[in-house]
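Hi U.,

Before I forget, here's the chain from the pilot set. I'm dumping it here mostly so it's searchable later in email.
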Amino acid sequence: QGNVVFGFSDGSNNFYFTSNEPVTLQEWTHIALVSDFQNSGTWFYLNGRHINGTWNAAPSGTPAQPATPLT
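Structure:
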């Protein structure tokens, strides 16, 4: 199992969200991000459920191995 990490940049700063809920590796998982940059709101969903997590200036954890790009 592992946690979802999503990163983005506003051009000056990097932001990384790490989910509090793990996902099962090698199993289909629907991940959605809804963002309202104008009002500073971002919401994450895992299999249709809103999930909580933490924001960091750098990613945390270790990528699953083998780390392969999505196709």
